[in-house]
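Input set for joint prediction.
Command: fold jointly, output tokens.
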Amino acid sequence: MGYIIDGFIQAILLILSLNPEIVDIASLSLKVSGASTLLASAIGIPLGTFITLNDFPFKRLSKNVIYTLMGLPPVVAGLFVFLMVSRAGPLGTYGLLFTPTAMVIAQVLLILPIITGFTITATRAVDRSIIDTAVSLGAGQFHTALIVLNEARQALLVAVLAGFGRAVAEVGAVMIVGGDIRWSTRVLTTSIVLETRKAEYSMAIALGIILLTLSFTINMALNLIQGERK
Amino acid sequence: MIVIKGLTRSMGGKAILRDIDLEVRDGEVMALVGPSGAGKTTLLRIINMLDRQYEGNVTIDGIDAGASNNMDLRRSMAMVFQKPVVFSMSVYDNVAYGLRLRKVPRAEIDRSVKDVLSLLDMAGRENEYARHLSGGEAQRIAFARAYVLKPKLLLLDEPTANLDRNNVAIIEKAVKNINERYGTTVVIVTHSLHQARRLAGRAAFMMDGELIEAGDTHEVFESPSDARTRAFVSGDMVF
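tokens >
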């Protein structure tokens, strides 16, 4: 029990000392997961809205595939991206393996179904009368979609936060495609795994506290912004 | 002018509208009356191009409303629904919505919104969040949002159902105003024969998806030619 308390105390000291390695790791985590969330949102929110508002062949099948992929295991996403970007893979010439770019790609693959799936659910919940009203006032497809997104914005925020949460917390995909290289592709989750294996519990706890604090702060900030807009 | 010929609409094998023939003249107020389930709202949605799954012909100013996705035609009309529908934004943004779609200059939008809010007794409420309004106020905003477009055709689906007398009076005054001031053609679905009398020059009585009779409001209500209309206007029909 003592080593846990001791670990906590040392963790706090490490954070307060702004250890350069910890700052680098936390900053890369934020950059990679932030970029992947932005990219996945930029694709997933319009895609989910399109699926809700339009009828097309295999719509139901498309939704089922997306809902199934929401549970995609990170290691599978990582393996797929690894095969794509490894030297012998179709994208091998770009030299992306073991780079933050590959980590972003893997996380986008992982959270795109989550954001798209949540967007489908959020936009479907918008009352039909809102859509009819917008159309009757002369809104085309684009403006109708904007009205639907505006109505669903609270639920969309949850979609984005769920995506970010999944991205920042996953370890399997970034470990495979990033390689956990110190000062290069090491992020909070991969570091926690590494430090725990090395029995460096204070470092692992410090990284865990930072990970939780980051998630909490971003959640709070987005909720505050949303609250102000209402 | 709206010309409807042989309009039939079925849903799930059941005919909602059956062989409707009706003309709505430019600049008139026409009331569609009849018991619930008569197909009045469906007819309004078809005129508003929200429903295109029908047989027969519906033309508005000579343009086929079913085949055309003509944005100019769509933007020549506006509809207010029975349930007050306001977007999750301010009163100002709600009322300005259609004007912005039409790329009206900002100064003109400001002026138009102010005028219409004043007409609907909502002056000075521009910055309020529309979702926080009462049902009657929300319906006035929904009406203002349609009115401010000064449409050629205004479709009203029981716009005063469940509203108190004050809200009803404000909206009725605005209906008369838009018709007289801008020559807007108005088609209003209403359960209230009093309201139809107050607002409409002509009325059409519908029942079970059929258009039973249409004509001068006074004639349809005072000397109906069909026994079903007689039963409805006399209050003998339970609906």
